[in-house]
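As a warm-up, study this chain.
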Amino acid sequence: MYKLMPLNYEYNALEPYISAFTINIHYNKHYQKYLKKLNDTLNSLKYDYRYNLVDLITHIDEFPLADRDTILYNAGGVLNHELYFSNISPNKNNQPTGKLKEAIDKKYGSFDNFKNEFIKTSGYLTGSGYTFLVLNKNELDIINTSNQDTPYLYGLIPIMSLDLWEHAYYLDYQNDKENYILNFFEIVDFEVIGKLYEENTQKNTLQ
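Now compare it with the structure written out below.
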């Protein structure tokens, strides 16, 4: 079975930007519900868990057609939440460094330009979904996906995720989604994101 990803911080560690109440419900109710539903569905198919979650997405054609939507939706919910929870932290690594900074400066001109583009793109999302920083081969792009679609479905590698489902912010911000998006940059951890960038660009170079 696919296992729960532990949080690397206490529920209250992201206050005042995200409350302990929100993190508790988001992690223990929403994220874990996707994980349970995914495992329950796969167990009903007598799946042997031969793939990691990313490879599960890319091998979806091996599963019965009637179950693919359920698998993709819940696997996306697990992957998207795990990236989101892992790239926010109380560690105050709010500025990219090293190779990620170089890539951001090359693509967007500066970190401020990147931040503005990310915020602008997140504002275009209608309904529920996510804004991602992704690798398209070794090129950075900012994209939105709806519901629990994962960028892996499109051959893209997500390295940064902003959860824009209402359950991620509504208890703290009500309808002020714009302020939630701005405050995301107070808790985003670019050390984690930078490591993901380097690991995945290195993989792409070796392929």
